[in-house]
User: What shape does this take?
Amino acid sequence: MPESRENFPDGIDPAWRGARISRILIGKEPWETRRSTVHTKSGLPEHHPEEALLLDYAFGNAAEAVALILAIHLVFCPRCRATVAAMESAASRLVEGLPSRPMREAALDRLLLRLDEPEAVAEPDAALGYPAPLAAYLGSGEQARPWRKLGRGIEQLVLPTAPSATRAMLLRVAAGRRMPKHTHRGNELTLVLQGDYSDQYGRYAQGDFEAADGSLTHSPAIGKDEPCVSLVVLDAPLRLAGALGRIINPFVQL
Amino acid sequence: MSGEPIILADLGEVEPAALVARVAEGADRSAFAELFRRFAPRLKAYLMRLGADEGGAEEVVQEAMLTVWRRAATFDARQASVATWIFTIARNKRIDRFRRERRPEFDPHDPMLAPAADPAPDESLGAQQEECRLAEALAALPAEQADLLRLAFFDSLSHADIAARSGLPLGTVKSRVRLALGRLRRALDGS
Assistant: This one.
């Protein structure tokens, strides 16, 4: 049994936090999976995005899908939040160094008249229970976006980011499976939301971030005990490696 | 609305965080007007420096400052200075408006947020003090690192764009960012 919630700084037991994600992403209570999330590591990620990516995010230069995967990593990672905060402070200093541009006359008066306007409700159908940045993309109820089966134990849910070469999708892969061996034409960013996988660089569990490019060929192996749900961002289609890769159709859709 | 003039108190000496608190707690229009006077012209300069025309910049500033009014209660002086908080709001409004994209942002009140370990009280610098140290470290960066940050910021270039345009190897760009950040972090850690 998890310990009392009072033992955790924000009142949320990390195991419970994992359990909630389990319930939502794989439709099962954590005790229905053989190895419940109680056994995940202390909750803090061990694999982080590079500083250059965090800089893109902090300065507002990351593509939407990239900003999304980084924002979700930040939910799980106080260390990278501190890094982004430092970069945002630096950006703010750069702004303060600019010669100021006086606002047009009456700009303040016009704004004061708007202060009592009711606020438009911008996010009508955010799904509950996901990390907030992801929830906004999933919709809920009737508008929940569907999973699509790709075969070989792989399911995919494409997220509605603005049209761009860079796309974001959730991938759910059954326990014990191995992703087809592949390399990358562009960049592949992966963030684990539930479960875990391993490749030659290590084991990746909730909150862990991996970046791969054309120099890396890998065949991630999903942990034996539960499905692995991850957010994947691609800026070019994957390239399958080896003879087996070429005959695996579904994967080409990624 | 009537044309009744709004009489605003003189708050020129009040700290920005205290102004935000007055907006949050008392919907204080005078405090909000003072925040607008101090920050709106800088935001406008930022937006125009990044390529907005004057009318577009003014509209984004209006949207950003309206968000400051509505979200004042979410400002946390332990996390950031007022200037940085307002900058992040304007940055996100700019992306919404000029790139027509959503800006995914983590929510500090997300129940799933993994908490940071609390520093011992005497170790934790106030956000204001941190930013002073950070400003010093920023001013002391080697030119190649400072130039890279300015290019990324003022020309809205991702690190990959910078590598493609400058002809610098991607690895060089990444390592300069890493070195610059190391210096900024060390300044904040006080070592």
